[in-house]
Design brief:
The structure holds 2 protein chains of 2 kinds. Chain A is mainly alpha-helical. Chain A has 12 helices and no strands. A 6-stranded mixed β-sheet of chain B has the order 6-7-8-3-9-10, sandwiched between helices. In chain B, strands 13-12-11-14-20 form a 5-stranded antiparallel β-sheet. The C terminus of chain B is likely disordered. Classes of the chains: A mainly alpha, B alpha+beta. Chain B: It comes from Acidiphilium iwatense.
Chain lengths: ~270, ~375
């Protein structure tokens, strides 16, 4: 074994440590600023509770939609070779690069009162995207779906296509191969993608606030508290939201990575 | 054919920039056909076409007497094993095999099919039923994969370089196991590899492939002894391929000038003429060394010459002896013989080559492949 390149590692840790401190310190300060009592008082407010629940619910819906329409796209991108594949991949990444206020305004042109789909849905489907959870879901989906597609794509790409071929030769049709072999093997990538999607959806502010101001999601509510009552009030709710999302993320990670056990099926 | 045939008949295929041209192969029950060729020759594509993953543009594929050309892979009954044997890493040994048992049937989610236990026992993997593939040795993986494939009662086994990630020792053991298994079941098998040791150990029939076409196909012993052209000769590991010129004929022997020395060759398949440039092919094990003590006497019908040892290499049971004289030669001897004959660099030795052991190839200029099939187009 060669000795570790100490100098390189040391420099990496020193520089990387700055980033870790930069992430942890503000969040720790935020949590430290709140007493248990003040947190309870914030949590007791019905408007705060409603906003947080709305965020969790809308993000869950957005994640489900991303799973239903994003994971298949990821599969197609991982398995099919076609001209323009690079362009399709780039389209998926656009929401990552577009400022989210811009995303919100663009979405208004489609889902707004006079938007090409918004008007149609209002008239024929009795579905409105303004002032409803549907609008929140749409805004969240737009900004968070790339995470689902990209991570799931990596998951699918990591599945050796030859395993799928072997599965076919031992008598499984293409759909059964997908369910029995491909999806279980790509599961980690998919789960990572959906976790990121969910986290990103909860945290979305700009696109949501432009498309749907009311009912307020948690980030919007925090912003409102900040503007109306100042830092302290806002910090209370922010701490609450932070705690909830952290717990959820840890839970998801556990589900996705924790069980590295056999799934010999039927047992 | 007395029994159900398995054959690829005139299959052509275009796949992006790659194409298979007029592939003809036959395997009889109990036989192993090895397809040998360099990377990119089209070996794997050929297997995938037989398994049903590519639709040929022309030709027919018959497996176990059934024309399967239009059937999807799941209905062809082909057991496929590739590198690392292709076990499903998220399923236990038992679950892997049960998938094979359910081939073509409705997926009844019973992990312990009554047919499972006998299969596990037959392959000596009963104690591994609940293990995941990552916890298995290469041998156990191979047995599991064979059990899984056998479970669906295949009419043909196909192997795509299954040993390529293994060390030499496991490779040899697994080859022997595999060979015994295939002999016993008498299910025909096609084995794709670029390793001539695989070919030498396993092949009943051998097909050499290059640039999407079969260069030569036939009984393995024939190809090893009498390759049809330079490409095949190099690929089946002919150790000595010496440029020479035909001087004439004496009875059933050809007189060949190699580096100023006269060699006699008996090769009834050779159809050359005087002054033709040829390659003289001699396998290393056919170069017989007599040591220095023996004078040149006796049988004038054999080739006998004095050469100098320039190198001895190898550590196992065999030694590779490099010789030099009017031309260079490589000989293979056992370690014992090498020591007994006192073969060391700098020593002279008598070399004998039986004219029957010499195979002549027309030198068609450079590495151009001379197709064994007259109707096949020449390489682009």
């Amino acid at each position: 074994m060669l000795p570790r390149p100490r100098g390189v590692l040391l420099t990496s840790w020193l520089l990387g440590g700055v980033l870790l401190v930069f992430i942890v310190v503000p969040l720790a300060r935020l949590i430290g600023s709140q007493s248990a009592g003040s947190l309870m008082r914030v949590a007791a407010r019905p408007d705060v509770r409603q906003a947080i629940l709305l965020s969790l619910e809308a993000a869950l819906l957005a994640t489900c939609v991303a799973a239903v329409i994003g994971v298949p796209l990821a599969y197609a991108l991982a398995r099919a070779e076609f001209p323009g594949k690079g362009i399709v991949g780039a389209i998926v990444d656009i929401p990552l690069a577009v400022p989210h206020t811009v995303a919100g305004i663009a979405l208004l042109f489609v889902f707004g009162r006079r938007g090409i789909f918004g008007g149609f849905a209002d008239r024929w489907l009795d579905l409105r995207f303004w002032g409803t959870i549907a609008g929140i879901v749409v805004a969240m989906l737009f900004v968070s779906a790339p995470y689902a597609v990209n991570a799931a794509r990596i998951g699918f790409e990591a599945v050796d296509p030859r395993l799928e071929k072997v599965a076919r030769t031992i008598g499984m049709g293409p759909w059964r191969v997908l369910w029995t072999i491909t999806l279980p093997l790509a599961w980690r990538g998919i789960a990572t993608g959906l976790t990121l999607t969910y986290a990103r959806a909860i945290s979305e502010f700009a696109a949501v606030v432009i498309l749907v101001y009311y009912p307020m999601t948690a980030p919007v509510k925090i912003y409102e508290l900040f503007l109306r009552f100042g830092l302290n009030r806002a910090a209370g709710m922010a701490t609450l939201l932070l705690a909830i999302t952290l717990v959820l993320l840890i839970l998801f990670r556990y589900v996705a990575y924790g069980q590295k056990k056999a799934t010999g099926y039927g047992r | 054919m007395t029994q159900a045939t398995t054959a690829v008949e005139g299959v052509s295929l275009r796949l992006g920039g790659f194409s298979l041209r007029d592939i003809d192969l036959t395997v009889a029950p109990g036989q192993i056909l090895v397809i040998l060729g360099p990377n990119g020759a089209g070996k794997s594509v050929t297997l995938e076409t037989i398994a049903g993953f590519h639709r040929p543009k022309a030709g027919r594929i018959v497996i176990g007497g059934r024309d399967v050309t239009d059937l999807p892979p799941e209905r062809r009954r082909v057991g496929l094993l590739f590198q690392n044997f292709g076990l499903f890493p998220h399923l236990t040994v038992a679950a892997n095999i049960v998938l094979g048992l359910r081939a073509g049937r409705k997926p009844a989610m019973r992990p312990h099919d009554p047919a499972l236990a006998p299969l596990l026992a037959r392959f000596h993997i009963d104690h591994l039923a609940d293990r995941l593939p990552e916890d298995l040795s290469p041998g156990e993986k191979q047995r599991t994969a064979l059990a899984r494939a056998l479970a669906m009662q295949p009419d043909l086994f196909m192997f795509d370089e299954p040993f390529s990630a293994l060390d030499a020792q496991s490779r040899e053991t697994l080859r022997e196991e595999l060979r015994a298994f295939l002999r016993e079941t008498r299910i025909p098998a096609i084995f794709v590899t670029h390793d001539q040791a695989d070919a030498a150990m396993l092949a009943d029939r051998l097909a050499i492939m290059n640039h999407g076409a079969i260069v030569q196909e036939g009984p393995a012993a024939d190809l090893f002894k009498a390759p049809a052209n330079v490409f095949v000769a190099d690929f089946v590991g002919i150790d000595n391929r010496l440029p020479g010129r035909v001087i004439g004929r004496a009875g059933d022997r050809w007189r060949i000038d190699v580096g100023g020395r006269l060699l006699l060759a008996r090769d009834d398949r050779f159809a050359g003429e005087t002054d033709a440039n040829v390659f003289v092919c001699i396998r290393g094990e056919d170069v017989v060394l007599r040591g220095a003590g023996i004078t040149e006497c006796g049988n004038a019908a054999t080739n006998r010459l004095t050469m100098r040892v320039v190198g001895v290499s190898g550590l196992g049971a065999f030694r590779k002896v490099a010789l030099d004289g009017d031309f260079s030669l490589v000989a293979y001897l056992t370690r014992r013989d090498t020591e007994k004959l006192g073969l060391a660099p700098g020593n002279d030795t008598i070399v004998e080559i039986d004219p029957e052991a010499i195979h002549l190839l027309t030198d068609s200029g450079g590495n151009t492949i001379q197709w064994s099939r007259p109707d096949a187009s020449t390489r682009a």
